[in-house]
């Protein structure tokens, strides 16, 4: 039987479908990494392994979702919820959707971040759980809305230019999707513009620039082996030299700021084993290079696995879960590390191969899918119609209006009451399970005695 060649139209349709799958895969992969990473966030690797002996996690069905280790950090959440990492990424995404993809506006994102710090993500009516120290201190400053970058730079200089936390790289992945039709240098610059809204350290900027460019290249299917990763890193370093000169021209005082340490950057770009990153070092768990390095390392592992001649299809279906699980079991800032790594892997592997027992248990998964589809339409990848202006979720207040201080306090009290209720229900269920185990052990013991 003769196989007819595909028409140009059919080939273009297949290419758009593959790109759409990667766009959705990136957004869901990141949110899933965030949600799964919450299980071990701020734990040491040893404590994580003791808390989750099976090292297996499920979010779906909801009734069988893996319970969290009980502690003050995880008690406010339920399995399948994402954290502040994805909330911040959604602020970028919603800003872009609200402008129907016609403008990328870091100042609008800064305004939305200011709203989030006080009220949470209004579109989903959630509280700002997990607010980091750096973001909180900068965004709450009186000068922030008038001059986000200047406020962030002042905060950084007051810390002797030493802090380089991962608060900007955790949210950068939507930018890579929005830049699929932009040049590489434009992509680097946009990543920098969004980083300096809160994080001006050169290590934060270069991490965001490389991460955003990797997402862009993965979705465009221009990055599919490790040489391509290294090429992006080299081009980002070259771009940064020009970027720094422009910064000094704009503000001469920037000349006294630290240079980018290329040796340290390259060391994190090319780790040979995840243990080299010491992700659970409690003094440095929020360091941007730890998140950046772990994400790039997992992407390299995925590329190596899929390049192997044996089991490509089966590997593709299982590798996301395996790599993300191995990463979060290292502990440390696990949700942020897995959020960034999940975005890279999702952009590389696509949505269809994400584990369904994670994917289908994401608490706001249906909402995220609608926004992902809307983004794909605005980017010209998917057919159909979508108007961000008419989508009330994309408005700064999420279409829900603004909360008063008393309303915010009431929401906090309701959350605390819900936490108490869930704790009581869990205590009750654990008591039932203990009695069942004791009864079964007694029965088996008696049966053995009769024998």
UniProtKB/TrEMBL annotation:
Q: Which cofactor does it need?
A: Mg(2+)
Q: How is the cofactor bound?
A: Binds 2 magnesium ions per subunit.
Q: Which domain of life is it from?
A: Eukaryota
- Which SUPFAM superfamilies does this UniProt record tie to the protein? ADP-ribosylglycohydrolase
Q: Which Gene3D superfamilies match?
A: ADP-ribosylation/Crystallin J1
Where on this chain does Mg(2+) bind?
A: 83-85, 333, 335-336
Which keywords describe this protein according to UniProt? Answer: Magnesium, Metal-binding
Q: Which GO terms describe its molecular function?
A: metal ion binding
User: Which Pfam families has this protein been placed in?
Assistant: ADP_ribosyl_GH
Q: Which PANTHER family has this protein been placed in?
A: ADP-RIBOSYLGLYCOHYDROLASE
- This one is known as ADP-ribosylglycohydrolase
């Amino acid at each position: 039987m003769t196989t007819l060649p595909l028409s140009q139209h059919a080939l273009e349709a297949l290419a758009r479908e593959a790109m759409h799958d990667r766009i959705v895969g990136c957004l869901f992969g990141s949110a899933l990494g965030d949600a799964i990473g919450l299980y071990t966030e701020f734990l040491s690797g040893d404590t994580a392994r003791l808390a989750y002996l099976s090292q297996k996690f499920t979010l779906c069905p909801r009734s069988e979702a893996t319970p969290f280790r009980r502690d003050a950090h995880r008690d406010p959440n339920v399995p399948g919820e994402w954290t502040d990492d994805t909330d911040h990424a959604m602020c970028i995404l919603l800003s872009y959707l609200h402008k129907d993809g016609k403008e990328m506006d870091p100042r609008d994102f800064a305004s939305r971040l200011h709203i989030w710090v006080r009220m949470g993500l209004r579109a989903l009516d959630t509280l700002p759980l997990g607010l980091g120290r750096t973001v909180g201190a900068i965004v709450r400053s009186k000068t922030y809305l008038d001059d986000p970058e200047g406020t962030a730079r002042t905060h950084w200089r007051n810390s002797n230019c030493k802090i380089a936390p991962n608060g900007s790289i955790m949210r950068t992945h939507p930018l890579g999707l929005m830049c699929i039709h932009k040049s590489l240098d434009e992509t680097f610059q946009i990543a920098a513009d969004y980083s300096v809204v809160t994080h001006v350290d050169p290590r934060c900027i270069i991490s965001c620039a490389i991460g955003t460019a990797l997402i862009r290249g993965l979705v465009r299917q221009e990055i599919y082996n490790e040489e391509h990763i290294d090429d992006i890193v080299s081009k980002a370093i070259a771009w940064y030299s020009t970027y720094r000169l422009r910064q000094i021209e704009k503000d001469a005082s920037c000349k006294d700021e630290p240079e980018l340490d290329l040796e340290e950057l390259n060391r994190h770009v090319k780790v040979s084993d995840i243990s080299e990153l010491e992700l659970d070092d409690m003094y440095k768990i929020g360091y941007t290079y730890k998140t950046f390095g772990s994400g790039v390392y997992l992407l390299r592992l995925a590329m190596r696995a899929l390049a192997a001649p044996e089991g490509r299809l089966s590997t593709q279906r299982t590798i996301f879960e395996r790599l993300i699980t191995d990463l979060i079991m290292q502990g440390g800032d696990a949700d942020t590390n897995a959020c960034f790594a999940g975005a890279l892997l999702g952009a590389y592997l696509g949505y269809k191969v994400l584990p369904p027992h994670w994917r289908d248990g994401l608490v706001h998964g249906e909402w995220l899918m609608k926004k992902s589809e809307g983004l794909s339409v605005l980017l010209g990848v998917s057919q159909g119609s979508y108007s961000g202006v008419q989508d009330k979720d994309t408005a700064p207040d999420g279409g829900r209006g603004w909360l008063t201080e008393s309303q915010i306090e009431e929401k906090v009290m309701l959350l605390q009451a819900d936490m108490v209720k869930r704790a009581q229900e869990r205590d009750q269920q654990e008591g039932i399970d203990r009695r069942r185990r004791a009864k079964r052990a007694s029965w088996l013991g008696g049966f053995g005695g009769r024998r």
